[in-house]
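Issue: ligand-bound run for pyridoxal-5'-phosphate - logging full I/O for the record.

Environment: standard queue, default settings, no custom constraints.

Inputs:
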Amino acid sequence: MSEDTRWGFETRAIHAGQEPDPRTGSVIVPIYATSTFAQDGVGGLREGGYEYSRTGNPTRTALEEALASLEGGRYGLAFASGMAASDVALRSMTRPGDHVILGNDAYGGTFRLLDKVLTLWGVEYTPVDLADLAATRAAVRPNTKVIWAETPTNPLLGIADIAGLASVAAEAGARLVIDNTFATPYLQSPLGLGADVVLHSTTKYLGGHSDVVGGALITSDEELNDQFAFLRNAAGAVPGPFDSWLVLRGAKTLALRMERHSDNAERVVEALLGHERVTRVYYPGLTEHPGHETAAKQMRRFGGMVSFAVEGGEEAALRVAASTKLFTLGESLGGIESLIEHPGRMTHASTEGSPLQVPADLLRLSVGIEDGADLVTDLLGALG
Ligand code: PLP
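Outputs:
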């Protein structure tokens, strides 16, 4: 039922691509731990057309159908990581001499892939504030093939107008890719707003339990999907069946978790705003956030990611990060447990000295689904 939009989001999260196993009746999709599939005579593939698990595996297919359904796309492809998905997307859509427009507040790994790998291959890129549509339009060149946007961004929670970017991309004859990792398909539907491709690090909210690394590309464009599938099969960065199953299981509760993440983030934001050592809070749910109106238009709620700056610069920020008890100091985000990190020294260290460098006094929270009051107590204790 991946294309069946009669059903609500929560229903599709549990059922899309996940019919009971026809042979045994198993209600939960089995983990097809197999590398290869028996053929009835050479080329005689059985139901589903499976031949080799790099090319296709039934557990992975279930995940891909579920993800496509949740994003409102026709096709979904799962990858070994978000970066593997980004790599396949960028290499499928560009050739040497082509140009990419990237948000100036992008995930450090995406920046590194473009800056340190794809430039060697002859791809050019320009970092732009994608919240500024005029600046984005001005950055378009005749060879621009891709506009790559995160919204909300990592780590400054900036907001880009997806429908506006889709018009800029269409005028430029370029593709718009939205990294929907922070918002998730529950909070935001980029394909419905005109994006060509949605990218996920399923490591984050879709998996939701910090126990798996994975990625995904979702599109309704058959030709693009074929190109992605070709390169994924040629290069091989596929998730194994157990990893696929973990993401599939995590995604079933996405809606419930995102509501709770958003509730807890709102409580944490309120507490941070009232603290004298907090100099700035970044959260798109705040009416004073410059992207608030756009966020309110294109998001269901504002999510579980919060960043804030503390008085006393980097040293003070590092002290706070080391002093929480419930917020675990660690990279990543989107799991049920709360995490704290210092982007400048951790997730975004690769942006140092570049236009994407992040403020030294910044801390990023992935607000989990614990008791919200406990989370506030923990943060206030660490801030002292
Ligand atoms: N996109 C965003 C917004 C991310 O935060 C991350 C990882 O942190 C990625 C992509 C890359 O995903 P992965 O770590 O699964 O390779």
